[in-house]
């Protein structure tokens, strides 16, 4: 258990609040020395996976989202809110999950680590206007792309009249492997501050994760280099980072809100785009309602396939963890976009 947890352990255990590092094992060591490690709490599967990779056996990770649930719809119990304050590190992406933002505001403090502190998040405007020039480059803190018809999202409108501020950050940064690698490095630094005796281990783990993510990035760059189409029609605008990085054009009826209901006119507009642009596939997601995507595919007479934004892992996911889902997504894109 990290230093922050010791100060609160007795009171929180009595209140039934501390779930990250556990009460029964307080002061005891198991085979992995986990009780002497660092406790991390997070609300989203990608950050859970990253924390596990960077922390290894020294870190105990609690995710606040139940497996197979949409991370955007997360609601927290009083116990979970308490765990945000008791953890050594509360690792989150501001704006992704309002419930987590509120818990950090009320319970967190020095333990809070917002990914936005580690990585510059793209805005909706960035993801609507970039042509993929973000591929591995940032200049003076700004993306180095230029405006074009490709890359990012076609619109910031949810399709039902609800528009997001163009300057609002897009939280789905884990679909950009370079940004995700930088988040790993930043997390390793914070874990090293909480557990200085093992700082070198965390740094080594982050380096290994970076190598893994670099490999996936290379696979995507090569696999999507030559494609007959670069248009991806998706259920909601979760793929702006991926689109910008690999010069794809994201078309969505629902904007960032995975539960918004696009208007019939918006559905008809996208269906016409699918027919006119020789798009062969409309993509659905495992964790959200894909009714709009299926309607578009039916009206346009094309196929559907699962493109997973890796918001969580479920039986319907095309893989068992972040790397395998990312690679399955690449296979799906390669087939749908007719890449060679």
From TrEMBL:
Segments for region (Disordered): 126-172
Molecular function terms from GO: metal ion binding
Keywords recorded for this protein, A-Z: Signal, Transport
First and last residue of the signal peptide: 1-24
Ranges that cross the membrane: none
UniProt-listed Gene3D superfamilies: Nitrogenase molybdenum iron protein domain
One GO term of the biological process aspect: metal ion transport
Family listed: Belongs to the bacterial solute-binding protein 9 family.
Protein name: Zinc transport system substrate-binding protein
Lineage: Bacteria, Bacillati, Actinomycetota, Actinomycetes, Streptosporangiales
């Amino acid at each position: 258990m990290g230093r922050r947890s010791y100060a609160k352990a007795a009171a929180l255990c009595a209140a039934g609040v501390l779930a990250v590092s556990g009460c029964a094992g307080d002061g005891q060591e198991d085979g992995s020395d986990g009780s002497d490690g660092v406790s991390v709490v997070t609300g989203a599967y990608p950050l859970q996976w990253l924390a596990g990779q960077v922390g290894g056996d020294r870190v105990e990770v609690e995710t606040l989202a139940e497996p197979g649930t949409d991370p955007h719809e997360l609601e927290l119990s009083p116990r979970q809110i308490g765990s945000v304050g008791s953890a050594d590190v509360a690792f989150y992406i501001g704006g992704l999950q309002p419930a987590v933002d509120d818990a950090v505001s009320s319970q967190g403090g020095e333990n809070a680590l917002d990914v936005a502190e580690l990585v510059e998040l793209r805005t909706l405007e960035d993801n609507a206007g970039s042509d993929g020039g973000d591929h591995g480059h940032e200049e003076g803190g700004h993306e180095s792309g230029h405006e074009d018809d490709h890359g990012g999202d076609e619109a910031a409108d949810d399709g039902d009249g609800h528009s997001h501020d163009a300057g609002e950050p897009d939280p789905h940064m884990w679909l950009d492997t370079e940004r995700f690698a930088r988040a790993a490095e930043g997390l390793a630094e914070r874990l090293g501050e909480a557990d200085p005796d093992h700082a070198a281990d965390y740094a080594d783990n982050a380096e290994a994760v970076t190598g893994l993510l670099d490999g996936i990035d290379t696979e995507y760059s090569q696999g999507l280099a030559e494609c007959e189409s670069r248009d991806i029609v998706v259920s909601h605008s979760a793929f702006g980072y991926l689109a910008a990085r690999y010069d794809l054009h994201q078309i969505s009826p629902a904007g960032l809100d995975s539960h918004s209901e696009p208007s019939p006119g918006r559905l008809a507009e996208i269906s016409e785009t699918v027919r006119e642009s020789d798009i062969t596939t409309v993509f659905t997601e495992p964790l959200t309602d894909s009714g709009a995507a299926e309607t578009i595919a039916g009206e346009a007479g094309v196929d559907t396939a699962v493109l997973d934004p890796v918001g969580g892992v479920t039986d319907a996911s095309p893989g068992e963890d972040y790397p395998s889902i990312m690679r399955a997504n690449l296979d799906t894109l390669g087939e749908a976009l007719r890449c060679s």
